[in-house]
Amino acid sequence: MDYRALGLKVGLEIHQQLATRKLFCECASGLVDLQGGIRFRRRLRPTQSELGEVDAAAIEEAKRHLVFVYEATPNSCLVEADEEPPHPPNPEALDIALEIALLLDAKPVNEVHFMRKLVIDGSNTAGFQRSALLALDGHLEVAGKPIGVPTILLEEDAARKLGESEGEVVYRLDRLGIPLVELATTPNIATPEEARDVALAFGSLLRATRKVMRGIGTIREDLNVSIAGGARIEIKGVQELRMIATFVEKEVERQRMLLDVAAELKNRGVRAVPLDPKDLTAIFRETQSKVVRAALDRSGRVLGWVLPGFARLLKGKLGPELAAHARVVGVAGIFHSDELPGYGITPSEVDAVRKALKIGGPDDAFVLIAEEEAKARHAIEEMHPRAAAALQGVPPETREPRPDGTTAYARPLPGKARMYPETDAPPIRVTNERLARIREHLPEPPEITIARLAREYGVHEQQARQLVQEGSDEAFEMIAREFGEAKLVATVLLYTFPELRREAIDVDAIPVDHIREMFSLLKAGRFAKEAVPDILREMGRRKLRASEAIAALGVTGLGREELERIVDEIVVASDEMIRTRGAESEKALMGRVMERVRGRADGKVVSEVLHARLVARLARKTDVAKKRKK
């Protein structure tokens, strides 16, 4: 696909948790597993900005009429519960964010002012998030292309969503208040692959500080995507950086589909979408549709809504878009004519619906909702603006990521009406002395680190780049510098670890000191390098130190004499094969020896001993044969 011809524009908003205590209290950062914590409930309502406006996204959230349940944790306090004013902002978090700004060659502000950003989806007990602008006009060069960073902000993370049920959402307060740095890029990213590469490059730079948190959920991306003729779509909270290209690709496909739908509606002469739902309950009194019958048994109604000109444009296209808007008011699903008859609704019922709605043309469609009447009417009122927007193409909105790379409607794009000053946090001067102190300790840029690792440790440049991108370079360098075996260390971090992760082994929880101990024991000859995957598997599975895993596996290293004894036993036992195949038997013998000593002897040493023993045995056989001829 020619993304440049499509006019693709992508910008990123990168949110990275900082490795320090929470931003407005002394509580520790980090997630907590909890059973039976204290809970309290809240309802949140939209408020006006300084200019008297109410944000559209906040209005949309308020329509859900949700109750929010908050679960307190040992690392949350009255600040997170919004029962106590915020404490002075964390100076360490401010320093880390300024360090990141200087690494991006941005211009720090003279004075930091925190603002309140209206958020009433329940992710913050106060109904707003505190956020402050720290620096402007930074940039990062990625593959020779400058990517601008117009703004760098410091803000507090949201509460962690645990689940949702009818009319109620549960959040845990452990994540609320963790410091976040937000980097917003310019929208000059032109392909899905470039979007992924830019995200990886920024991730490498953030990890270079050694002051950011690691693991799934500690860095999240918002993707802003548009194509020519489309609109800016914000995909909120992508956690898997390597999925970024897929999200961009699928959003481009979605916008192209919506533009094609708009063009087809125009060709059909559709200029407006009526809002005139009809009560069709009588048609379904004897229905066999389980969904409709369940609604009627709850004293619900069946409402029908005509969409002139929309036939064949709903299934797999506008249908899911409309259904997402119906869910805003709690309607789980809709039926539309592109998928009927079906779901227990018969052809005769479909004909009766078309007659009752006075649908005659083959291009006309309809939607059915079986629900409590007020809720059903409310759902149609929510879907109507989205159907009308289909005439124009792509409405700007915020969407949520799904695991397969697709997205789902969340709410309208937020605007400036959601911002107003934070009166409980005083402004903070950013002095020249503070910036000079931070500049003195700026870390090595990732590109310099990559070149140095390849040069000093003899690993391939691509491996060095991968180590830096994954944030494993610090562990690699510490172990390789102390114990050598740089290529083996790189292999373990880049290839063995991913293989064990696929087995659901939590290798990321193995402390670096334990990995260092393993390489120390390897250097001391306690085991052979072939045993490394098994030892790491045991360490990750049973939370053992390296020495404990070695003992549990029974892979203590063999001495030279013991190895030679085992090789001799196998050579003697394989006399018939050696007699018939001669030197060609060495490969098969190697397999038999390694099966016996795997993990307890280095393969190179085994090969040397076996080769010497086999050559000697063959020579003896040759001498015996010659003597017999004489």
Describe the secondary structure blueprint for this structure.
Blueprint: E1 9-17, E2 39-42, H1 56-62, E3 67-71, H2 91-103, E4 107-108, E5 111-112, E6 114-118, E7 128-142, E8 145-156, E9 160-165, E10 168-172, E11 179-184, H3 192-208, E12 219-226, E13 233-238, H4 244-267, E14 278-279, H5 290-297, E15 301-307, H6 314-326, E16 335-336, H7 347-356, E17 365-371, H8 373-389, E18 397-401, E19 407-412, E20 419-421, E21 428-429, H9 432-439, H10 446-457, H11 461-469, H12 473-483, H13 486-502, H14 512-523, H15 532-542, H16 546-553, H17 560-573, H18 575-581, H19 586-597, H20 603-629
Report what the structure shows.
The chain is α+β, with helices and mostly antiparallel strands and 630 residues long. The protein has 4 domains: 9-23 and 88-157 and 178-266 and 416-420, no CATH class; 278-390, GAD-like domain (Gyrase A, domain 2, 2-Layer Sandwich); 446-553, no CATH class; 560-629. Helix content is 41%, strand content 19%. The chain has 20 helices and 21 strands. The strands form 4 sheets. Strands 1, 4, 6, 7, 8, 11, 12, 13, 18, 19 and 20 form an 11-stranded mixed sheet that branches. It has a 4-stranded mixed sheet with strand order 2-3-10-9, with no helix packed on it. It has a 4-stranded antiparallel sheet with strand order 14-15-17-16, sandwiched between helices. Helix 3 (192-208) packs antiparallel against helix 4 (244-267), helix 10 packs across helix 11 (461-469) and helix 15 (532-542) packs across helix 16 (546-553).
